[in-house]
């Protein structure tokens, strides 16, 4: 089983908390805090690209 190194939870307003994690195989994980057993998985590069796109405002219409 892969060992995931989870960051501290990031919480927005209310109970919208999620966690980002990585493993030694260069994979990245995003999960709702408390549901780390069922994360969304992709490469670290894909996670980096997603975060950069969100920071640039390209996902504001989804919020």
UniProtKB/TrEMBL annotation:
Domain of life: Bacteria
Name of this protein: DUF397 domain-containing protein
Lineage: Bacteria, Bacillati, Actinomycetota, Actinomycetes, Kitasatosporales
């Amino acid at each position: 089983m892969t060992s995931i190194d989870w960051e501290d939870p990031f919480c927005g307003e209310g109970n919208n908390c999620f966690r980002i994690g990585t493993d030694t195989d260069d994979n990245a994980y995003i999960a709702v805090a408390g549901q780390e057993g069922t994360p969304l998985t992709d490469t670290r590069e894909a996670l980096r690209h997603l975060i950069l796109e969100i920071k640039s405002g390209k996902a504001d219409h989804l919020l």
